[in-house]
């Protein structure tokens, strides 16, 4: 019942707030290990979950875990979505789904952050599905703004633009694509959802 009202009861990433304003936070994130699946959305027509099911199967969220141990892996938040504009040199950025656009086609990369007990990629169980990639992310810094409601493309685009403007105005150098971090399952009532737009900075 708590998840309907936005209660986040799963592990979330470790970070420290370096600077905070009325408009955004600057956060330093600790290294982490992620499971990711990259796909062309046109290949999954009619599948509303996109790549979620593939990663959920890997950790065992939908039944028996599809990894070589096999070992159930706790769900974490957020799900992360990264988007890259193929025509631009600048790059934009979940407790965990990632979307990248490549020249000629739009590719989506969904990511689940794995629990902190997996300190290195080799510590995590090996996926049975070869499309699932386990990789490490080093320490990183983001400008972050949070918002409630449904993270539609229009809402996200507006948040990204405002955050970019604020960061650049305050002298921060943007070094990558934005990430959309979503912390709640789809059945959470929209007013109680926690979303964040994150932009990587130097």
UniProtKB/TrEMBL annotation:
Pfam families: SOUL. The lineage of its organism: Eukaryota, Viridiplantae, Streptophyta, Embryophyta, Tracheophyta. Gene3D superfamilies: Regulatory factor, effector binding domain. InterPro entries: Reg_factor_effector_dom_sf, SOUL_heme-bd. PANTHER family: HEME-BINDING PROTEIN-RELATED (PTHR11220), SOUL HEME-BINDING FAMILY PROTEIN (PTHR11220:SF58). Belongs to the HEBP family. This is SOUL heme-binding protein. It comes from the Eukaryota.
């Amino acid at each position: 019942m708590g998840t309907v009202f936005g209660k986040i009861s799963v592990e979330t990433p470790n970070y420290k707030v370096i600077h905070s304003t009325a408009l955004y936070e600057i956060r330093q994130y600790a290294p982490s290990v992620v499971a990711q699946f990259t796909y062309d959305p046109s290949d999954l027509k009619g599948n509303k979950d996109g790549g979620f099911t593939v990663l959920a199967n890997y950790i065992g969220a939908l039944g028996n875990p599809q990894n070589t141990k096999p070992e159930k892996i706790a769900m974490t938040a957020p799900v992360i979505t990264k988007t890259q504009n193929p025509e631009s040199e600048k790059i934009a950025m979940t407790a965990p789904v990632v979307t990248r656009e490549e020249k000629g086609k739009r590719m989506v990369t969904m990511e689940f952050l794995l629990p902190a007990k997996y300190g290195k990629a080799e510590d995590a169980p090996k996926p049975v599905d070869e499309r699932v990639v386990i990789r490490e992310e080093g320490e990183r810094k983001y400008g972050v703004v949070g918002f409630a409601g449904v993270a539609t493309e229009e809402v996200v685009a507006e948040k990204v633009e405002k955050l970019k403007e604020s960061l650049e105005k305050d002298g921060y150098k943007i070094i990558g694509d934005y990430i959309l971090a979503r912390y709640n399952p789809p059945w959470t009532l929209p007013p109680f959802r926690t979303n964040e737009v994150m932009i990587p900075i130097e």
